[in-house]
Design brief:
The protein is an alpha/beta fold and 228 residues long. The protein has helices at residues 10-17, 29-33, 39-50, 63-74, 88-99, 112-121, 131-135, 140-152, 168-177, 186-193, 196-210, 213-227, and strands spanning 2-6, 22-26, 54-57, 80-85, 104-109, 125-129, 159-163, 181-184. α1 (10-17) runs parallel beside α3. The chain is elongated. The structure holds SN-glycerol-3-phosphate.
Length: 228
Amino acid sequence: MKLFIDTGSVAEVEEIARWGVLAGATTNPSLLAKEQGDPGDIIRRIAELVDGPTSAEVVSDDADGMVSEGIALAGIDPRVVVKVPFSAAGLEATSRLHALGHKVNMTLVFSAPQAILAAEAGATYISAFLGRLDDIGMDSVDSLREIVEAVADNSTGAQVLAASIRNPIHATVSATLGADVATIPGKVLRQMLNHPLTTSGIETFTADWKTRPEFADWLKGLVAANEA
Ligand code: G3P
């Protein structure tokens, strides 16, 4: 499963891109609205940092407006993927943008029937939301499972992009259910790092190594010799 970061924060992408785990990024109007600076510059910088597909979302609610905005957004950077909210107009816009050669991420998808339509409209990515389903007491795992199964053998090449990821369990479930991509907020990516046994294991290794001070000299010498 590929990992995208779900953010509008360039600083956050700079931090996490260094881990070497990001294959792309997604933004949305809410995430960009939190940031200072020109949205175009932010989108372009994020695309440069992840050097992969970077979603930028249209805000019109009619197909013509979505297409015009999508073409303009795609012009920001070759890595920009046009994000289109799911609706009948969104399907039309996705179909037209796809015909023009643009990649589309259809977002705000919550059911398998919606995902099937998005795939047939030519979406490259289908953003299947988890957290917002949980928020209203619906089962996000069942929903994602159905969406993955419904889209699995489609001939369109559409990829299921798990979105609205609220915790590390959502990331794990997305992978185990077979999502092609998960777009994960920086906060959750940092949570995925942590396990108490990892922390205590590192502490134990460090303490045990220090019981042999000569080993520290040995390793420093090895490094120096290698860098000479
Ligand atoms: O960016 C799309 C999606 O990941 C947003 O998630 O947390 O606003 O439901 P959220």
